[in-house]
Structure to design on (287 residues):
């Protein structure tokens, strides 16, 4: 069988296809598998705890893993080593999640493709190759308008007392906001970016509040200015967005993009189904 995976920092979606007829056999989900954040042992533990993957490991002939944190050789090599151990009979292909977004969104046509999930990124795809205006340096330095970006903003506004009182009450009810607990997750536990991203879920409950719309719009403005406008064809080619932040706040995103003269072609919550369809059609191999 063939395994295709779309892996983020929070979760990874997997779909298995029959090697002969490319029909779907099963789908499953693991916790996030970002090799830039997790150790080799942590990656392995998250994989072997999935029954479907371990049960069928010996039958897998090819793995196509597209993931967050897989844009440079070090983390990519780490994850590839773990996958080779779990799937000993398979050819392992690892590529960054940006490439999955391109295949899922544009179908291989010229476009600007953006990710707004737990993390964020963008690229210009000329129909053959991806081009990025800057490399992604992750959740501490970059990731504008991502889940972890908004999580940080909410926590900052809460502790700096810049959050409206009515929203503060609900924020306190929903989360453990003890400083020691927050610092433990940020500096001692794995996946601090995914931890921050969970606070962004709070925005969904208050998306119609003026404070929240302003917070979201400001994040989108920052992303557009830094991650879309630097591309020369930003206002000429279709622009696609992938990820839950873009999907759930699409009206604010489209309104903000319109101010900059950018027209959004489509917003896709999860790319895995379109990614599988692309593989079924193209039957291509990653390099």
């Amino acid at each position: 069988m063939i395994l295709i995976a779309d892996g983020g920092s929070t979760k990874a979606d997997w779909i298995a296809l029959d090697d002969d007829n490319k029909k779907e056999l099963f789908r499953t989900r693991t916790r996030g598998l970002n090799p830039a954040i997790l150790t080799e042992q942590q990656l392995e533990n998250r994989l072997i705890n999935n029954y479907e993957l371990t049960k069928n490991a010996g039958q897998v002939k090819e793995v196509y893993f597209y993931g967050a944190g897989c844009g440079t050789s070090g983390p990519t090599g780490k994850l590839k080593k773990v996958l080779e151990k779990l799937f000993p009979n398979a050819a392992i292909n690892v590529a960054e999640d940006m490439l999955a977004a391109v295949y899922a969104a544009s179908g291989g046509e010229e476009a600007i493709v953006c990710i707004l999930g737990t993390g964020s990124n963008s690229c210009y795809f000329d129909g053959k190759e991806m081009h990025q205006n800057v490399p992604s340096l992750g959740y501490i330095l970059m990731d504008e308008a991502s889940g972890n970006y908004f999580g940080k903003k909410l926590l900052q506004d809460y502790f700096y007392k810049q959050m409206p009182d009515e929203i503060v009450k609900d924020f306190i009810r929903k989360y453990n906001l003890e400083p020691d607990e927050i610092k433990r997750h940020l500096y001692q536990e794995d996946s601090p970016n995914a931890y921050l991203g969970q606070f962004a879920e709070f925005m969904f409950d208050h998306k119609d509040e003026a404070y929240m719309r302003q917070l979201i719009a400001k994040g989108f403005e920052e992303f557009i200015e830094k991650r879309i406008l630097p591309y020369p064809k930003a206002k000429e080619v279709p622009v696609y967005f992938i990820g839950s932040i873009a999907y759930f706040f699409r009206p604010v995103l489209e309104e903000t993009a319109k101010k900059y003269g950018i027209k959004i072609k489509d917003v896709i919550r999860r790319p895995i189904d379109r990614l599988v369809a692309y593989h079924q059609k193209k039957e291509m191999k990653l390099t």
Summary: The chain has a mean pLDDT of 92. The chain has two domains: 2-102+271-282, 107-268. The radius of gyration is 19 Å. Residues 2-102+271-282 form a domain with the Nucleotidyltransferase; domain 5 fold (CATH 3.30.420.40).
